[in-house]
Sequence to fold (259 residues):
Amino acid sequence: MTHPLMPKATAIWLVENTALSFEQIADFCGMHSLEVQAIADDEAAIGMQGLDPITAGELTMEEIERCQTDPGSRLNPAADRTSVPKKKGARYTPVSKRQDRPDAIAWLLKNYPEINDAQISKLIGTTKPTINSIRDRSHWNTSNIKAQNPVGLGLCTAEYLEKIVAVARARAGTTHAPNKSRDEGPAPSMTVVAPAPKPKPAPEPTAETLFKPVPEAAPEEEEPAEPEMLPAPETEQLTIEQDMSSEPIEMPAPDADNQ
Fold:
């Protein structure tokens, strides 16, 4: 059951203007019966003005009369009652982790300068004056601030941080935003450079490789030497010189007796 928008003011009006029991009023307003009794005894909510639930459309007069005649029944809200959505307030940070927020702010300012102050406030649950004081190094605890990842500190989740960073970079024009609709146009292209192949590591030396005998190299076969060809001897041409200057020698005629 949805409770009234202003439970204490509604309880004051029901105490002052109806004969409902404390339990019936407490059940309708989402309070404890002792709180309603303290309001009736002027011990709580002193000076607060009551709010008429009938005028506000949260309750009908017929329902009040029905419960007044039957103390054991409970009030039912009006059928046409419109529930007021709860306003989302600032992000709640546990007390034990609030001292870690300056470290997370310093880390975000150092690593993601494109994130604006409003996004940091929404991410961690801090205020803009605190962010400005850490950026200007005018924070009262500047000397002890150490930049730390807010995910590691438990102040936010990794998915939420990635989403905030992607939106901030999209606004800065460095990359596309996540879940971008087709109506907004194509996302800017990004050049992907393939990584260079890593060289294969050398195998680690083992006892077998260290003490393995080195095989002897096979003797190289000598090619037969070609016989050397000696040059042919030069023929000497002998010339016989005839002495043409001497006179011819006359041979003596043979004797007739000898014939």
